[in-house]
Amino acid sequence: MMICYREQGMSKENARINSLGRLVFCLIAILLVVRPTLASDLLSPEQIAQKTYDRYVGEDMQMLGRMELIDKNGSVRIREFVSLRKDFDGLRKQLIRFTAPADIAGTAFLNIEKVNADDTEQHLYLPALKRTRRIVASQMSRSFVNSDFTYEDMHRHSVAEWQYALDGIEIIGEHDCYILVSTPKQKTDTQYGRTISWIGKDNFIPLKVFFFDNRDRHIKTYLVSSLKIVDGIATEMDVSMEDIVSGDRTRLVTLEAKYNTGLPNSYFTTRALEKQR
């Protein structure tokens, strides 16, 4: 009986060891399958920045929009505008023309951005003066038509002008987001000391951006409140820029958008700024 009991005990111990061995083997097998997938999904901060910059937004776009200027007391002034954009000849060109109210109607803005380069031209047409003036580098930090966006905010910096660090992953709404910290290189011409961007992993759209000045004070917040798929392209339908210091906020609402309609190149010239369409 004693011998039989010991043999049974050894069998139970062996069974436990065998079960543990099978479990370890299964875990190793799972890790071997999962790890290559995780490695292939991991992007460097620079790759995230480049994918954001390169995000497909159509060959061209036309949009009807509303700008709301909201002061710290909640008072709202409304403007209406049309926006046209086209990518061609290694350039991204955008024209914004205000149509209402009367005090700003006819004012037009042209942004000409060389893709993947630190080379941007901006022109503003003021109907009261009946002339177009160029926005120079020293004016980039000024308010764009008295909104909470600056002229610098109206164009993209090339990826090479900044340094990047990944500060984690966070969920915003329904989107998993990379938290990307961007710091300008020494020769980069910018009003900002750094930015922190929450970039959707599924669409590479900046859904929230904190802007800091050169003393590392949080001065502005950009926020996307609504997205919609238009012509197969994820489109920001409701965005805002809040000035943390003044308490004012500018909201941009997309009323209608169309992509890839074949806009003529002639729409995107300084001469076209002065024409009413």
CATH architecture: Clam
**What is the terminal separation in angstroms?**
103 Å
Ranges where pLDDT stays below 50 over 5 or more residues in a row are: 1-10, 26-40
What is the tally of helical segments?
3
CATH topology: outer membrane lipoprotein receptor (LolB), chain A
User: What percentage of the residues does DSSP assign to strands (E)?
Assistant: 35-45%
Mean pLDDT: 89
Write down the CATH class. Answer: Mainly Beta
Structural class, from secondary structure content? Answer: alpha+beta
Spatial shape: globular
What kind of sheet is the major sheet? 13 strands, antiparallel
Helical residue percent band: 10-25%
- Biggest sheet strand line-up: 6-5-4-3-2-1-13-12-11-10-9-8-7
CATH superfamily: Lipoprotein localisation LolA/LolB/LppX
Radius of gyration: 27 Å
Number of strands: 13
SSE series: HHEEEEEEEEEEEEEH
Number of domains: 1
Topology:
Layout: H1 2-41, H2 45-53, E1 60-70, E2 76-88, E3 91-100, E4 108-114, E5 120-126, E6 131-134, E7 162-172, E8 175-184, E9 194-200, E10 206-212, E11 218-230, E12 233-243, E13 249-259, H3 270-273
Antiparallel strand pairs: 1-2, 1-13, 2-3, 3-4, 4-5, 5-6, 7-8, 8-9, 9-10, 10-11, 11-12, 12-13
